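Re: the 81-residue chain
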Amino acid sequence: MPWTGAAAPYTCAGTKTTVLANGPVIAANKTLNNLTSLTNAKTDNLKVTTAFPTTANDTFQGATSTIAFAFTGTQRTETTK
Protein backbone atom coordinates (compact mmCIF):
# COMPACT_ATOMS: atom_id res chain seq x y z
CA MET A 1 0.00 0.00 0.00
CA PRO A 2 1.40 3.43 -0.86
CA TRP A 3 1.84 6.18 1.70
CA THR A 4 -0.88 8.84 1.47
CA GLY A 5 -1.31 12.43 2.61
CA ALA A 6 -0.28 15.85 1.36
CA ALA A 7 1.75 16.61 4.49
CA ALA A 8 2.92 14.90 7.65
CA PRO A 9 1.72 12.79 9.28
CA TYR A 10 1.56 10.49 6.25
CA THR A 11 -0.36 7.25 6.58
CA CYS A 12 -0.07 3.75 5.16
CA ALA A 13 -2.80 1.14 5.42
CA GLY A 14 -0.33 -1.67 4.70
CA THR A 15 2.28 -3.38 6.84
CA LYS A 16 5.05 -1.03 8.02
CA THR A 17 8.53 -2.53 8.37
CA THR A 18 11.87 -0.87 9.12
CA VAL A 19 14.30 -1.49 6.25
CA LEU A 20 17.19 0.68 7.44
CA ALA A 21 18.22 1.31 11.06
CA ASN A 22 18.64 4.82 12.46
CA GLY A 23 21.93 6.46 11.50
CA PRO A 24 23.51 9.45 9.79
CA VAL A 25 21.53 10.77 6.82
CA ILE A 26 24.68 10.90 4.68
CA ALA A 27 25.86 7.35 4.08
CA ALA A 28 26.95 5.07 1.26
CA ASN A 29 26.48 1.40 0.40
CA LYS A 30 23.74 0.76 2.95
CA THR A 31 21.70 -2.42 2.52
CA LEU A 32 17.92 -2.21 2.86
CA ASN A 33 16.57 -5.22 4.75
CA ASN A 34 13.13 -6.85 4.87
CA LEU A 35 12.13 -5.77 1.34
CA THR A 36 9.15 -7.56 -0.16
CA SER A 37 10.09 -6.31 -3.64
CA LEU A 38 12.77 -9.01 -3.76
CA THR A 39 9.87 -11.37 -4.48
CA ASN A 40 8.45 -11.45 -8.01
CA ALA A 41 5.63 -8.91 -8.60
CA LYS A 42 5.97 -7.34 -5.12
CA THR A 43 6.50 -3.64 -4.38
CA ASP A 44 7.93 -1.63 -1.50
CA ASN A 45 6.72 1.92 -0.82
CA LEU A 46 9.46 3.68 1.14
CA LYS A 47 9.10 6.64 3.52
CA VAL A 48 12.22 8.46 4.71
CA THR A 49 12.19 10.21 8.08
CA THR A 50 14.97 12.50 9.27
CA ALA A 51 15.50 14.26 12.58
CA PHE A 52 18.10 16.44 14.23
CA PRO A 53 19.87 15.05 17.27
CA THR A 54 18.17 15.96 20.54
CA THR A 55 21.36 17.83 21.45
CA ALA A 56 21.05 20.22 18.46
CA ASN A 57 20.56 23.84 19.46
CA ASP A 58 18.64 26.62 17.67
CA THR A 59 21.52 27.19 15.22
CA PHE A 60 19.70 24.95 12.72
CA GLN A 61 16.36 26.72 13.05
CA GLY A 62 15.20 28.01 9.64
CA ALA A 63 18.14 26.40 7.82
CA THR A 64 17.49 24.46 4.60
CA SER A 65 19.33 21.88 2.57
CA THR A 66 18.75 19.43 -0.26
CA ILE A 67 19.48 15.72 -0.32
CA ALA A 68 19.14 13.17 -3.11
CA PHE A 69 18.77 9.41 -2.77
CA ALA A 70 20.04 6.91 -5.33
CA PHE A 71 19.05 3.24 -5.20
CA THR A 72 20.86 0.54 -7.13
CA GLY A 73 19.16 -2.78 -7.72
CA THR A 74 21.22 -5.86 -8.51
CA GLN A 75 19.47 -8.81 -10.11
CA ARG A 76 20.23 -12.11 -8.49
CA THR A 77 21.46 -15.05 -10.54
CA GLU A 78 18.55 -17.12 -11.78
CA THR A 79 17.88 -20.50 -10.26
CA THR A 80 15.87 -23.48 -11.44
CA LYS A 81 12.89 -24.34 -9.28
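The chain has a mean pLDDT of 86.
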